Amino acid sequence: MKRVFSGIQPSGNLTIGNYLGAMKNFVHLQHEADCLFCVVDLHAITVPQSPEALRQNSRNLAALYIAAGIDPEKATVFIQSHVTAHAELGWLLQCIAYYGELGRMTQFKDKSAQKDVVTAGLFTYPALMAADILLYQTNLVPVGEDQKQHLELTRDIAERFNHRFGDTFAIPDPYIPQVGGRIMSLENPAKKMSKSDESAGAYISMLDEPDVIRKKISRAVTDSDREVRYDLENKPAISNLMTIFGLFTEMSMDEVTQHFAGKGYGPFKKELAEAVVEGLAPVQKRYHELVASDEVDQVLRLGAQKAASMCESTLVAVKDKLGFLPQ
Ligand code: TYM
Questions:
Q1: Domains observed in the chain
Q2: CB of residue 147 inside a 6 A radius of ligand 1
Q3: What is the pTM of this model?
Q4: Which of 3, 180, 253, 321 could be bridged to 20 by S-S, CB 3.0 to 4.6 A?
Q5: Is residue 11 over pLDDT 90?
């Protein structure tokens, strides 16, 4: 059975980009692989966080994983900081990763641009992400397209380590959906949909109320002419909305095109809004039940124990190979 690992940062409301690009695939992969899904709080503190908000966001994200359909009986759900091996291997891999390759990460360049303060952690972040993945002998990593470069670096670090110290890590493959790997902003189809966008109209949060979703979709930018046609080059805004519609309704782009032939943007946007509202409704309902119960806390306690025992032997092997004196 394949081993799958992925993580999401608990840094505020998740968007339907996170959902369609990553979380939906987590749910689907849990039936065919041995999966670990992590709330990566150590990654979140690479930028300033309010401690109280971080605590809440971490628990809420775990609730959202389960609400979206991750079954804790099937997959291991846990908080990154509860398993100290992540921070430990993260440091060790910082000493395998090169300064130059970390400096080439486009996400670091984007996130550090025009910032007064950039932490060292933001720079070394991909080494911690490599540790998350490599600790569990992971074969597949379901992520959106923006994480592809980090996955390539993870593979390079693993290969470098294996080459220098002997076979230690499995080499992981990215699992990036062909459709939905990069959901774009509703206000600017040249920009990725992001929970950190300064304009809330650019994204739909997984927890947005139905009327908020309707309003955001009705205001979403469109392209010239009135035809609902999938054409990434000439109609990037409509193609993005069609992608969202197709993923929520499980329709192919051809089916979506046929469905809206001759209908124009108005009816398309109305149906799209209802598809998103309906798709998110059960997730939102379950989420609100979960955050009010102690089910999540139990899942996280057990998840941390399971994850810690799953990664122990790899960390021991790494330390031994590096030449650390055993205790
Ligand atoms: P994060 O928290 O930024 O995003 C979580 C997941 O959502 C995907 N995603 C998108 N997919 C499609 N369209 C979008 N607009 C969109 N926005 C975000 C991301 O690609 C990601 O899969 N570094 C990671 C977290 C991480 C991780 C890991 C992932 C830490 N360790 C180990 C995998 C394995 C991140 O910041 O994701």
A1: 3-176+294-322 (3.40.50.620), 200-288 (1.10.240.10)
A2: yes
A3: 0.97
A4: 180
A5: no
